[in-house]
Structures are given as structure tokens and as C-alpha cells.
């Protein structure tokens, strides 16, 4: 028992920095002044007048986010033991790791279901309605969170110490890994889109004035 307590304490303190650093990074990210690029009011107005169908990149990202939501909801239902045939087929034919008794995959899928899904809905809203300046920050935050979470999930499902019966079936390896990598990549692609062309998400400024002029006043 004393050995268990000693090992638990050592493991706890070794992992504490990895638990605290993301909170510190989030505080720094959301508290620092945003570096607003110089964009004219005319360009902002022109971008914000375009409908979703006239912004093909945003349209594709919206479709990908909808697919990610559907995939996340499916896996959430799977770990909640939903009796649907789709859930049964998925857990036994594609990702048996989700029923690993250690509980880690179940917790991950529930976190996705209750935290990632609402945020993805908000991001779809931001892609459809102009002036959502929070997209410039939250997309970066979400991209980092999903990349880390998916790295852990994919790595654990393929790890040699995971019982063989819970690993991804050989014949389903490519579709399962591709879907999981895509789930990690979509938020990063969205963050890159917001970073490289932020005009659609910026608040309108008086005509003829740049966003930099507004910031300086």
C-alpha cells in the first residue's frame, strides 16, 4: 500500500505541469492584445457581403465541421451504450478501443460530446455570420486542444500495451486512422483560414478607414 501511495504521488507530481501549462497558455492567449492586421473598411465590407456559397473555403470548412459533429456524436452514443445498430457496428468493426475497460476512451468521447460539439456549432455560426471577432482566438485554442486530444486517442488505440482485442482491426486501419486524423486537422485548417484572411471576422469600421487607424484612436 505504501509503495502504491509513493508511486501515485510521484506520478501525480510529474503530470501536474502538463495539467497546469495549458491553463497558463489559455490565460496568456485570451488576455494579450490581439494583433489586428491592417484591413480597409471597404475590404471588410466586401468580404462580409459574400454569402457562404461565394466563400468556397468557408463552405467546405462548414461541411467538414458538420461531419466532425456527426462523427463525434456517433462516438459519444457508442460509449454511452446506445442500442442503435450503427453504434454496435462501429464499436465492433471499427474502433473496439472505445470499449476498453480502462475508461480513458469513454472519458475522451464524452468530453468531445459535451465540450467539442457545442464549440463546433459556435464555429459554424462564426463562419456564417460576419463580425465574430472571437473566431480569431477560439479557433487557435480549439485547434490545439483537438490536436492534443486526438494524438492521445490515436496513440493509445495503436499502442502495443493496449490489449490486441481493443486495437483497430487491420482491415479497418486506414479509414479509422484517416477519420481520426481528419478530426484533428479540420480545426487546424479553420484556425489557418482565420489567421490568413481575417477580414470576414473583423468588426466593421467607418468607410475609408483602416482597422489599424481604428485601433490607434
In brief:
The protein is mostly helical. The protein has helices at residues 2-31, 41-49, 56-79, 85-93, 104-128, 135-158, 173-196, 211-216.
What would you note in describing this structure?
This protein is 70% helix and 0% strand. It is built from eight helices and no strands. Helix 3 packs across helix 4, helix 3 packs antiparallel against helix 5 and helix 6 runs antiparallel to helix 7.
- What kind of assembly state do the chains in view correspond to? single chain
Q: How many DSSP-defined strands? A: 0
Terminus-to-terminus distance: 65 Å
Let me know the largest β-sheet.
Answer: none
Number of helices: 8
What is the percent of helical residues?
A: 55-70%
Q: What is the radius of gyration?
A: 21 Å
Low-confidence stretches: none
Elements, N to C (H/E):
HHHHHHHH
Q: Could you say which overall geometry the principal axes of the C-alpha atoms support?
A: globular
Which descriptors apply to this entry?
about 220 residues; mainly alpha; globular; Zgc:85843; EXPERA; transmembrane; transmembrane helix; membrane
Outline the fold blueprint.
Blueprint: H1 2-31, H2 41-49, H3 56-79, H4 85-93, H5 104-128, H6 135-158, H7 173-196, H8 211-216
Helix pairs in contact: 3-4, 3-5, 3-7, 5-6, 6-7
